[in-house]
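Catalogue entry: protein

Sequence with per-residue tokens
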Amino acid sequence: MPGPKVPAADQTLAILSHLAAQRGPVPASTIASALGLPRSTVYHLLGVLQERGFVVHLPEARRYGLGVAAFELSSGFSRQQPLSLLGRPLVAALVDRTGESAHLAVLHGRDVLYIVEERARRRPSLVTDVGVRLPAHLTASGRALLAALPFAQVRALYPDAAAFVARSEDVEATGPRTLKELRGVLDRVRADGFAVEDGEITGGFASVAVAVLDHAGWPAAGIASTFPRENVAPADRADLAAEITRTATELSRRIRGAATLPDAAR
């Protein structure tokens, strides 16, 4: 049963949530309008948040953004590994439904870092073990995550040909080697609603992945299923993606995420 309402606390959290969802600092008047609050209330609460370090005021621009204390909350969130704790049972359930191995990964620069792996019965071990990093542009998880970013950010991550590192192992496909080729791959991900890699990480294996979005519509993680190529025909990969999407949507709900890609990533 919900407890009694505390208007000041509710309004303060609403302001912080609004600022966290913005691409940059915003005027107090914009916050007041967006939240339907009196300007005097917004200025008062922003003053308190500024004193505590949760908000920073940019006087020349007359705008407010998140402060260091808000970043410290974010760091605490990361240290407690909520994505792996919340995601592990969901990924395990996905493996039970599909009979194929699955994993959860997050984006670290141009790499993906695997934080959960659940291997299906009678399936071989994969390179995507917990703690392993792989080039994002070659993996299904990485492509799902990159496709959810504004393309300007993708361009910043891949400024030249040297950014497109290749797998040193013997693989069957090389993946995109230029920004133009990567953009084509990501356009396909957005059109299909899921990402695929086939033979670009391990010969004979393919993966299908979907992004998990946070409250601002940014990619928090990627969930992928990896399988021997002959187990899932290309025509059936959309059905597998639908199962992965169920899992991604539920994890997104648990972290109070968004259901659709932000406009900037489309």
The radius of gyration is 21 Å. The chain has two domains: 7-75, 81-265. The mean pLDDT is 87.
